[in-house]
Every structure is written in C-alpha cells, then in structure tokens.
Amino acid sequence: MSNNLLKGKRGIVFGALNDKSIAWKVAEKAVEQGATITLSNTPVAIRMGDTKALAEKLNTIIIPADATNVEDLKKVFEESMEALGGKIDFVLHSIGMSMNMRHNRSYDDLNYEFFDRTLNISAISFHKMIQIAKEMDAISEGGSVLALTHIAAQRTFTGYNDMADAKALLESIARSFGYVYGRDKGVRVNTISQSPTLTTAGQGIDGMNAFVDFAEKMSPLGNADAEECADYCIVMFSDLTRKVTMQNLFHDGGFSNMGLTQAVVDDYIEKK
Ligand code: NAI
C-alpha cells in the first residue's frame, strides 16, 4: 500500500544483494512510496548476486562501488544526481562484512588485516560516504542518511565477533556526523538497530538460528523481519521524522529492553 511518503524524493540504496537483503526490501518500498532511486553494490556482488534483476524491476540503474573506496563513492553520488535529476534526499548504508567470521577466526584469534577490513567495510565506509556527500553538497537540506546496526554494539553476543566492534564504531559515526551535518546543512544521520534476520550476512553469524529463536522468545512483539525493517527505514526517510537525528533506533520487537520473558523461562524448564 502506498501513502506516497517519499513522493518526489531521490535516494541511493547501498547493499541489495538478493531478495533476502534488507536493502532489497527498502529499495522496493521506497519506489512504491513514490521515490526515484539508484542502487549500488560491489562489482563482485553485482556479478554474483541478483541486484541486476532488482534494477530491472524498479527501472533504475546500478552504480558499482566498493564502499571503502572514496573515488567510487564520489562516482555513486555524481551519477545518481545526474540520473535522478538533482540532489539526493535519502541514503541507505546496508553494508557489512567480516573476513574473520568467514574464516571462523574467534575473537581471541583475530587476523588483524581482516579486522581492519571489517571496520573499513562495515563502519568507516559510512563516514566516507557521508564525508564525500557533504564535500559535494550532494544531499538536500532535511535529507536523511541511515545505516543498519545491531545491539551487539552495546552488549556482548557470542559469535558476533569483530562485527560488534564495527557496529559500535558505526553508531558513533552516526552521532558524530549527525552533529556536524545537522549543524552545517540540516541533514540527519541515524542508525536502526535491527532484530537478527536470516539474510546472507545474517547467516554468516555463528549460531544464528539459535539466536533468531532466542530473540524471538525474548521479544514481546517477536523479531522484526526485513520487510518491517524496510518500513521503518521509509518512515526515517520521510518528512514525518524531520527532527530525528544522531539516534540509534531499536527495531527489535522490544528485545533491547527485556531482561527475561516467560517464553524463555518455559523453554528453559522444558529442556532441563
Ligand atoms: P546482505 O548480505 O544481504 O547485505 C550485505 C551487503 O553488504 C551485500 O549486498 C554486500 O554485497 C555488501 N557489501 C559487502 N562488502 C561491501 C563493500 N566493500 N562495498 C559495498 N558493499 C559491500 O545482509 P543484510 O542482513 O541485509 O545486511 C545489511 C545490513 O544490515 C548490514 O549492515 C548488517 O550488519 C545489518 N544488520 C543485519 C542483521 C541481520 O541479522 N541480518 C541484524 C542487524 C543489522
């Protein structure tokens, strides 16, 4: 259902790999709500994933970019403004990757080159994206920049590994740049902290299925899925949230404020 919440707005969506990706759902919903968008992902992801099919479906273009490369990011903003016919109103950073996780390196046996890459891809790329946009004055006043994060930034979750550190940095960048970009250009910067979700990146987390089950039982509203996350992103891109900035917004069915639910107690007693 469309309420035209993003009518006339121009956006860039980074990180749609396949139809499980949170960015995929955001791209679909943004267009449904009246926005025009461009897509971006790495050349490898574009070759191996389904991003081209999404671009065809939404009648838009994909601009290849490694989000750690400032020149690539500059191109994304330049080509997006050209293709969409003006400054950008919203940007989604939906990017995460840990080589340590991929290689099953535990937190007390990290490979530091991999660790650098985790931080660069999953967090510093957000700073690069915003800095280049600000330098180019590519985002309109009142524009909204969002990244996706996880509660492992605040509390320790087994198996979340070096991504926990990357998410803590990502959220800090949102606060720090939220101040600077808000002050100078009226642009807001936030993160949405999402429930565990069975996507390609999600499935890379050790013990993910158990975590999804536990979080479901620990959340009064149950886990939020990718579709629901996309709905929240749309509201954050819309003019209904004009004064929301520098926030880490939990979208997790209540998980972040729970201590213990009856559902978890019942499950524990049953298994004992
Ligand atoms: P996904 O695997 O569909 O998306 C991750 C994307 O990052 C892919 O499109 C991939 O190509 C892209 N990417 C990786 N390296 C890149 C680089 N160097 N430059 C540009 N793009 C690059 O998985 P998902 O779950 O949709 O992930 C999106 C975001 O949501 C990530 O930041 C993730 O950490 C976050 N998130 C995911 C949760 C989950 O349980 N799936 C929970 C909370 C947050």
Provide a descriptive summary of the structure in words:
The protein is of the alpha/beta class and 272 residues long. It has a single domain, classed as 3-Layer(aba) Sandwich (Rossmann fold). It is 46% helix and 15% strand. It contains 10 helices and 7 strands. The chain has helices at residues 22-32, 43-48, 51-58, 70-84, 99-102, 112-136, 163-185, 208-218, 226-237, 262-271; strands spanning 10-14, 36-41, 62-64, 88-93, 139-149, 188-194, 248-251. The protein has a 7-stranded parallel β-sheet, with helices on both faces. Helix 1 (22-32) links the parallel strand 1 (10-14) and strand 2 (36-41). The chain starts with 9 loop residues before the first strand and ends with a helix. The mean pLDDT is 97. The structure holds 1,4-dihydronicotinamide adenine dinucleotide. 1,4-dihydronicotinamide adenine dinucleotide (NAI) is lined by residues 15, 17, 20-23, 41-42, 45, 66-68, 94-97, 121, 148-150, 194, 196-197, 199-202.
Highlighted features:
single chain, 272 residues, alpha/beta, Rossmann fold, seven-stranded parallel sheet, 7 strands, 46% helix, 15% strand, globular, binds 1,4-dihydronicotinamide adenine dinucleotide, fatty acid metabolism, SDR_fam
